[in-house]
Amino acid sequence: MTEHSANDAEAPLGGCPVMHGDGSELTRLYGPEAAIDPQGIYGRLRKEYGAVAPVLLEGDVRAWLVLGYRESRRVLDNPLQFSRDSRIWRDWKEGGVEETSPLIQMLGWRPDCVSQDGEPHRRLRRAVTDNLDTLAGRGIRRHVTHFANKQIDAFAGKGSADLVGEYAEYLPMLVLTRLFGLPAAGGRSLAVSCAQVIKGGPDALEHNDRIMEILGGLTERKRAEPGPDFTTGLLAHAAGLDEGEILSHLRLVLITAHTTTSNLLARVLEMVLTDGSRLSGLVSGQRSVSEVVEEVMWNTPPLAVLPGRFATADLELGGTQIKEGDLLVLGLAAGNADPDIRPDSGVSVHGNQSHLAFSGGPHECPAQNIGQAIIETAVDVLLHRLPGLHLSVPADELTATASTWEARLDTLPVAFAPV
Q: End-to-end CA distance of the chain, in Å?
């Protein structure tokens, strides 16, 4: 499969090239080349620099990209050395990053659990995990089945569909509207806004503001009319979250849960439909969806690059000298492919859950079970509803578009017997 940009992303800034201290030109993780071949960039940087490479993020903001698996684990497991609190980010403190930068949507400090460490982190994360655990026991698979069938009903009679644009791209958000207590009618536009926040670019701030406005209205309604939903659970939690903390956590879960799950669902369907043995195994019940999810987590994790960590002191990482206040972003896809821990990418990873796709350490993704339930149910419903489901283009014609943080499948054209 080839990677390309649908709109060539943002062109790199003009003027003189940005140079590293040794005189080499720094590599941008955004723009046309990054959209076309992110894996090629990771491989080239690994050969040139090793486990940690200097890169530029949107707006030519400097960062360290961690490419090594062991180095990523060290960063994730050591918040005292590598903090999630961006208030210590030197470039931001010195005015090198504007408040209107698209990077702020991904890296800026908020009163949520991913922006803090230690006891403040534990207090806020407990409120999130307690409510996610409650939701996990309240029939998520029933909600997924309902919305999956509604999505499929819209194209089942045609005998063809694009399983990205007509299924995977919106299904997780429709489920999340039910879990949050939001009207399902706004699910599609919310999904678009969440995708734009992750993608970055000049519209990211506007879409983030729209999300916050919707969530602000939601909290007002739920204070007046509580319900069995995630929003009410945050409002009533014993941790006593204030207004800013509630809104920030609603934003955090909505954006991350939708964008990662929709991307992962598309990639799981891609893997199933480009391998006849996997497809027949799932249809016959001899294989499980969870096995396919595991492979995707290793090979094309839904977040290719994880933002971000900030060095709390001068230190060394992977042979590279890091300065206090430096920004580090973690190459999850690059780390999973690190030849030091995975010399042969063709060897089966079945049963091996030590990938980086869920992050790790104190900030490891707390919604793994919910995401797994959405994907397993969505795939099962699709396979049982559409007889003769198969890819309608050659597998090597499938393309994906990458941004700094992720690479998303563009389309997944399929055909089947009209129902």
A: 30
* Residue 69, token pair as written in the block: 């698996």
Which residues contact residue 2 at a Cβ distance below 8 angstroms, ignoring those fewer than 6 apart?
396, 399
Contact indicator for 374, 167 with CB cutoff of 8 Å: no
> Which strands make up the sheet holding 399-402, listed edge to edge?
2-3, 399-402, 407-409
Phi, psi of 322 (to 5 degrees): -105, 140
Do the strands 2-3 and 327-331 form a parallel or antiparallel pair, or are they unpaired? unpaired
Sign of CA dihedral 245, 247, 250, 256: negative
CA dist 349 and 365 (Å) reads 21
What is the mean pLDDT, run by run of 10 residues, along the chain of 419 residues?
A: 39 47 80 92 97 97 98 98 97 94 94 96 96 83 96 97 98 96 94 94 92 97 96 97 97 96 97 90 87 93 96 98 98 96 84 92 92 95 95 96 96 96
What's the predicted TM-score (pTM) here? 0.92
